[in-house]
């Protein structure tokens, strides 16, 4: 397919490489000097404007940093949706507010552009290996029309419901992951209290029923470094989770209690990420104050 790509950074770059390797004609937006240098070194087709990147594309893929960037890149007179051809498809990968996904889809409908809310889970290494998880909200027939392209870097590619559900699944997943990281850190504390070292307990539990991806991640990163390595990404997602729960009246329940615990705030979310601490403090969580389900 002829593809316009917005956001060829840490996660997006490996996607571009997989798309090109699969035989797609990809044009990459390169407004930043770092992205431009990388693209030039790799021999990618590039463009300096959103309009040039998307106007002749059958498929546009966007994976920018946050909700604000999603709206700036995709909406309004200078956004991708306004420049896309009727009948084209937009796949939006960035973790954002589900309402933003709906806004983008509504804007697309006015232009005859099909939108898929395709939240992702995994690392750049997963992408390079073609095993990035995609949770896709939107019309299933639209997903089926681009599934072979998405499967060049994603497996599984799962349809999870209407627009917004891709983001909702991702946010629930990330809430659970951060809570599990916190519990794994506390398991290390408990083990130390009974005389077992961190490396020993984490290695042992990976072969037991208490294992999880969170625990394996902690074993790889180490308790002392988990906040430094993961906090910046997790802070953003936990802030979104809290904002949505507050707005919708969703009860975060036991997950919310773990997320707001002193251990998680001190060891998982704040350690090594002081510049972003205010992000989560803007949406404080009071356990039990939120009501029906998301």
Automatic annotation (TrEMBL):
Name of one Pfam family that matches: NAD_binding_2
GO MF, one annotated term: oxidoreductase activity
Enzyme Commission identifier(s): 1.1.-.-
Organism this protein belongs to: Rhodococcus globerulus
Organism classification: Bacteria, Bacillati, Actinomycetota, Actinomycetes, Mycobacteriales
Transmembrane stretches, start-end: none
EC primary class: oxidoreductase
Keywords for this protein: NAD, Oxidoreductase
Domain 3-hydroxyisobutyrate dehydrogenase-like NAD-binding: 164-254
Domain 6-phosphogluconate dehydrogenase NADP-binding: 2-161
The protein's name in its UniProt record: NAD(P)-dependent oxidoreductase
Family: Belongs to the HIBADH-related family.
């Amino acid at each position: 397919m002829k593809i316009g790509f917005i956001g060829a950074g840490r996660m997006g770059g490996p996607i571009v490489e997989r798309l090109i390797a699969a035989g797609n004609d990809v044009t990459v937006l390169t407004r930043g000097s770092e992205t431009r240098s990388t693209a030039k070194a790799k021999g990618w087709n590039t463009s300096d404007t959103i309009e040039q990147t998307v106007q002749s594309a059958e498929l546009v893929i966007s994976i920018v940093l946050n909700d604000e960037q999603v709206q700036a890149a995709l909406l309004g007179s200078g956004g991708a949706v306004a420049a896309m051809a009727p009948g084209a498809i937009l796949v939006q990968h960035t973790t954002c507010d589900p309402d933003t996904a709906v806004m983008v889809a509504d804007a697309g409908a006015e232009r005859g552009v099909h939108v898929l809310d395709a939240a992702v889970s995994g690392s750049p290494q997963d992408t390079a290996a073609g095993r990035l998880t995609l949770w896709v909200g939107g019309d299933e027939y639209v997903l089926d029309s681009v599934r072979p392209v998405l499967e060049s870097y994603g497996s599984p590619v799962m349809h999870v419901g209407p627009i917004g559900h891709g983001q909702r699944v991702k946010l629930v997943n990330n809430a659970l992951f951060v809570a599990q990281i916190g519990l794994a850190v506390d398991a290390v504390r408990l083990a130390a209290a009974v005389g077992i070292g961190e490396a020993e307990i984490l290695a042992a539990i990976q072969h037991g029923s208490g294992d999880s991806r969170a625990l394996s991640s902690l074993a790889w990163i180490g308790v002392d470094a988990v906040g430094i390595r993961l906090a910046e990404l997790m802070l953003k997602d936990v802030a979104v989770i809290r904002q949505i729960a507050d707005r919708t009246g969703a009860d975060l329940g036991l997950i919310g209690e773990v997320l707001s615990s002193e251990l998680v705030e001190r060891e998982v979310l704040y350690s090594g990420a002081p510049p972003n601490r205010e992000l989560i403090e803007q949406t404080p969580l009071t356990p039990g104050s939120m009501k029906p389900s998301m």
